[in-house]
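Reopening this ticket.

The earlier resolution said the output was attached, but the attachment link was broken on my side. Pasting everything inline this time so it's all in one place.
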Amino acid sequence: MNEVDIDSIPIDQLCRVLAPERAHLVGEAMARAKTRLHGRTVWHVNATARGGGVAEMLPTLLGYARSAGISNRWLVLDGEPDFFEITKRIHNLLHGSLGDGGRLGPSERAVYERVLAANLAGMAPLIAPGDVVMLHDPQTAGLVEGLRAVGAKVIWRSHIGLEATSAETDEAWAFLRPYVENAEAIVFSRKEYCPEWVAGEQLFVMPPSIDPLSLKNRLLDPGTAHAILVRSGLTQGDDTGEQIPFVRRDGSAASVRSHVGLIAGAADAALPPPDDARLVVQVSRWDRLKDMAGVLVAFARMAASDAFDDAHLMLVGPDVRGVTDDPEGAEVYASCVALAHLQPPEVRSRIHLVTLPMDDLDENALMVNAIQRHAYVIVQKSLAEGFGLTVTEAMWKARPVIASRVGGIQDQITDEQDGLLLDDPTDLDALSASMRRLLLDHDLAERLGAAGHARVRDQFLDDRHLIQHAELYERVLR
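Inline output:
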């Protein structure tokens, strides 16, 4: 068990970008939470401090809450390859996918419980009776009873799920139910993900959110975004050598480093796109359910048949060596590289597979920001999705988004109004047609981008999420 440092972020900064009535509401909620939590600490526990939506959200949500006078801390599990293989299997099953095809039998349960017992032994002495602990996702479910035994109020939050039940989802919930059914509250991103045995006051629905002031989402002018991409070797252009400064989450000063070799492949496949290329971009983990390979094939079909010489594809994910809780990442990335190399030379030269370094998460976030703002179209062709914060981020940057009508994506995008939805995420021809449509119709692309930005401002910023946290703490401490 390892603790992640949390930097206090003045909540006044967030309030300044909100409408006055919303700033007032979040201020009131934080004041109530501070009073109700007096003398208690709120603990958050998840599987990784880098990569994935939970690790993206916690630094800012906890930073704002800490500045409002709420004591909170963040712990990350210690694991081992067998444990993360099992929890990845649960992750896939909850999405209705067989994943690696393995089962969840007595031997898997024994590994799962052994690893979490070791983590509990390190965590329990830190927890005071009456503290609130929010456990995130399947990796942490087995901690519920042990933490309740030391007097904590325990919340388990699942960021993933599927609207319909299946043999796969039933197997996953049968594994998890004995661990989580006695938690004070069980939180889902969508009500549709909730199994039938969770009901009443125990059920709490809380969609994720983004911080508009984080390094990943703060405003970048086009010149700065372009300079970051040139410095990182992700687009062609002349690097002036001048520093590109930014301010880290902890308030310290830094500058963007020079990078080489972030684009996979050899010869033409490893060259960055021209600086005036219209980029079709997907940003996600190297996860089979994100279907980077499907995006690649759909783009290749379009590029081979249409005269969009200025259209390039950029698939962007983390350096797989920097994501310890996802054992499939390296295999998925390697398969995408191999698939790109199979394309005809005139198409292959317009496909760019990018792995962003994970040794500096602040710089990583700034690079993603620059890529998304430089993109012409952003895709999220997930086969299944818990919520899809990469969609939220893209919409916030006023980019037109093409995404699958799955999971929480359909809560964010109204088709033809603030984005384009794919009814069948496996239909590659439909994705190709949507790409072609936006590349041909600049007015449509701009209209969808502007509407998407407005949708996120209205529903998916951190103020709403903080208010819901305050309501949840009140519920479990009654």
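Reporter confirms the inline version is readable. The longest strand covers residues 311-318. Residues 286 and 334 are 9 Å apart (CA to CA).
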